[in-house]
Amino acid sequence: MNQAHFTDIPSVYSRILDKSKEIGFTMPSDLFIGSLLKTLISSRQKANVLELGTGIGLSLAWMVDGLDKDSVLTSIDNDPELTKIANGFFGEDPRLSILCEDGENWINNYSGPQFDLIFADAWPGKYSQIDEILSLVKVGGLYIVDDMNFQENWPIGHAEKAENLIKYLEKREDFNLTKMNWSTGVILMTKIK
Ligand SMILES: C[S@@+](CC[C@H](N)C(=O)[O-])C[C@H]1O[C@@H](n2cnc3c(N)ncnc32)[C@H](O)[C@@H]1O
């Protein structure tokens, strides 16, 4: 099996990748996590999905491809240039809300329904506000983070933060958890109570 052979890369993906190179975006999500997110999201109907860290929209492209017609997806980033670009690629899709907002503020002020799936790819909802974000996952819903394996470009002290996050997530008795040494290091959790 060649896990790097992808047969269903989103049609908009190459244009986003070109834009990413053009503006020098250095934090793209990889194809593996994108593909996983699409597969997981498409297991749900009428799903309510959240992405923290829109970036330039690479993971979002996969996530959108996994949505059924009645599902909705909110994606948050605090960088106006990035949300403008992402809105340019996806803005016409009525299922999507791409918001330029600080993730921490957004989490603290959110009072809507819980989510079927949360992909936490920014600092808030991962290294801060972890209890708050986990409380926004439905029972039976999924919480996913990547970038959990050591990377050369991590600043000093980040490895310890990642280790502390893993230990904390492992202790949560209201979630089942799987750690995967795959992609950039993925943790996939399901809320069980
Ligand atoms: C790893 S990148 C996301 C990559 C994205 N998933 C993609 O595939 O293009 C992390 C993103 O988090 C955003 N970010 C950082 N701090 C944030 C905050 N406090 N609130 C919201 N977004 C934040 C950054 O602007 C960056 O785009």
From TrEMBL:
Which Gene Ontology terms describe the biological processes this protein takes part in? methylation
Q: Which keywords fit this entry according to its UniProt record?
A: Methyltransferase, S-adenosyl-L-methionine, Transferase
Q: Name one Pfam family in it.
A: Methyltransf_3
Instruction: Identify the domain of life.
Output: Bacteria
What GO molecular functions are on record for this protein?
O-methyltransferase activity
InterPro entries, alphabetically? SAM-dependent_MTases_sf, SAM_O-MeTrfase
Q: Which SUPFAM superfamilies match?
A: S-adenosyl-L-methionine-dependent methyltransferases
Q: Which PANTHER family match?
A: PUTATIVE (AFU_ORTHOLOGUE AFUA_6G01830)-RELATED
Q: What is this protein called?
A: O-methyltransferase
Source organism (scientific name): Cyclobacterium qasimii
